Design the sequence.
């Protein structure tokens, strides 16, 4: 039988990264491609105890729950955010099935066909995918090491009247960039002047390497109910729980909860109750410090090896946190074409092109340093160096 | 700030049932309103052990997983369905965050604005809500005790060219009805003749009271790749896990998986792995038999008390499974208006009106018998009988 699909299927793309991962996972390849946290760091025993408590303490906890999320978890989230300067009532929080769902539900209640969304370029590719699946137009704003270039941003706001500005301002995926405080404040000023909503995606904010933290979240600087802020426990506890949250203006959160009700009734509440116990009984901040230290060490190992690659024109910025190096190669090297050769040599990365909204730079790649041990990073980077040096010679 | 929402927000409705539940849960009310399984029957110890095993056996299981679902779970689902005559390859299965998400993802990839969906009347209200949120038109087909009336169905197929026929053919919500084998086969014949997809929603199929099972699922009778079949573990294990699945033509399942990737990456895989262990280590069929026996007993208690209500014109059909009585009262009684009085008297139900696609019968109500003990059922039904008898006298 021939099936008639919806028009919106045409605007759905499969994730380039997830498709690449499927291929890579089949072989014996050292992968810098995924955005995976290190499994060895999962707090297994604490997670085990938290689930045990959640399951055995109160059988009402295993019943259907509220769409907005488990009340005790929303309270705990409000308290955690408050410590970081983001003060919001628990009723302004919606617990989601990972922060990916926050992006989707927000899109569902906000965007009509043809709406404009401004983003950095490159940016988180799965956000672009969600936005485009709602038949919106995603437009790139120029950016530099400190964030979006404000002149270009203002010009595009005036000209295009965007519905939303999407940013990953802290240890961004894919570039590892951190927006300066000044840019954060100016972004808010422009958003307020022109009445544009900001969507702040912050999955990596906890993963800082410096003693000095990144500037405060944009949401915590917002005085005009302009910002939706989303984060997740996928990088700080375990991804398999799929627990994220979004906080922001109650009017938007309330409508998103209504959309969520139709989508999946509510987020897995075994995991929500387990998280409540974990946050009470386990020193998650100490655990996060261990993650930071481990990732910082791995980042330094990768940096050291990047520095030994004999390739004029190779550039990167040392990340101050997060999970990725963003590497620019000489213009002559197309990283999408090179990937096959790299995989054959036993090392993988993600080509940079899919992260671009427009004008992809084909000579870029994203390298993850969190999911491989220092020894594997060394081994993989030696392979990658060879691949790059040979590619350069051939050209 | 004033926010500009999407057009589709206008087509979103909050669930009448969930809104009612919020009110009821605040007071000291015996509730026959929800569709909740009995918490006392949750297999706590088996669930606890299954999660313990899932969390401690393999830390890769706590990493990001495949969008389609955990391979071992899809295999186990294929085996379970095969025993019930529904033979499908694991690759034709998508694990979802409850069967509610299966309805939503299916809608997302299939429906355009203005598409027609045929349903029974009344039917599962949260399905109507999802369909309408995609700006479709849901049209009711006449039905009787055995399922849809085929003449009306064929006429509407020819006249309206529907995209899909949505059915809950086994112990349906809200009516408790079971489609006869003949109607199931004829539905397939019509769907095949006119090339219409069938969506079979089967959350209650396991909850049979008779020795004799209901007729086979429509999906298991399908020889032409016409049927999408969805079910869930919410009624047989615990709802809080939010694990459902959908099985059907690979072409549709594949596109739904792509939509799911953008929606929430994948379903909570701690719970998926736990379910794999539960299905291996625990006699779930024996457990389901205990659930059946308990619910059957409660249904009989409620029936006995329904029979004592002194109200000419009160009608119901004894359910052969599932969780609900569907009660029709004299035309003069409006159950929506009566609910306030009932709640004040300490008993609650769901008015029938929201379950109707069109022409709601205002003198209907849905009574749940699974979430109250026999004693509470007696107490609540005595209160309800008084409320009904007095309402009748006043009119």
Sequence:
């Amino acid at each position: 039988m021939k099936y008639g699909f919806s028009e919106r299927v045409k605007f759905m793309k499969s994730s380039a990264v997830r498709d690449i991962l499927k291929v890579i996972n089949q072989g014996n390849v050292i992968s810098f491609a995924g955005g995976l946290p290190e499994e060895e760091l999962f707090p297994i025993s604490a997670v085990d105890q938290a689930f045990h408590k959640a399951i055995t303490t109160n059988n009402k906890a295993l019943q259907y729950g509220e769409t907005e999320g488990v009340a005790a978890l929303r309270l705990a989230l409000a308290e955690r955010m408050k410590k970081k300067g983001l003060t919001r009532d628990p009723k302004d929080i919606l617990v989601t099935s990972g922060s990916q769902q926050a992006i989707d539900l927000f899109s569902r209640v906000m965007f009509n066909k043809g709406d404009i969304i401004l983003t950095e370029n490159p940016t988180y590719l799965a956000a672009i995918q969600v936005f485009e699946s709602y038949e919106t137009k995603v437009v790139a704003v120029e950016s530099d090491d400190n964030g979006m270039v404000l002149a270009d941003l203002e010009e595009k706001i005036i000209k295009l009247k965007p519905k939303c500005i999407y940013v990953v301002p802290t240890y961004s995926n894919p570039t590892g960039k951190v927006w300066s405080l000044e840019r954060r404040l100016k972004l808010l000023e422009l958003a307020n002047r022109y009445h544009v909503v900001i969507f702040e995606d912050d999955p990596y904010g906890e993963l800082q390497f410096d003693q000095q933290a990144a500037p405060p979240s944009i949401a915590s600087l917002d005085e005009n109910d302009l910002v939706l802020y989303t984060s997740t426990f996928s990088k700080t506890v375990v991804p398999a729980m799929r627990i994220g949250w979004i906080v922001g203006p109650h009017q938007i959160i309330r409508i998103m909860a209504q959309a969520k009700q139709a989508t999946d009734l509510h987020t897995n509440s075994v995991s929500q109750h387990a998280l409540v116990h974990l946050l009470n009984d386990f020193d998650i901040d100490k655990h996060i410090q261990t993650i930071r230290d481990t990732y910082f060490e791995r980042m330094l190992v990768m940096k050291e090896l990047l520095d030994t690659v004999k390739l004029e024109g190779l550039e990167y910025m040392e990340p101050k946190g997060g999970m990725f190096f963003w590497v620019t190669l000489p213009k002559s090297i197309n990283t999408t074409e090179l990937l096959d050769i790299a995989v054959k040599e036993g090392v993988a990365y993600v080509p940079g092109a899919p992260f671009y909204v427009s004008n992809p730079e084909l000579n870029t790649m994203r390298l993850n340093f969190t999911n491989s041990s220092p020894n594997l990073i060394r081994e993989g980077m030696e392979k990658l160096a060879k691949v790059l040096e040979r590619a350069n010679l051939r050209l």
Summary: Residues 228 and 306 of chain B are 36 Å apart (CA to CA).
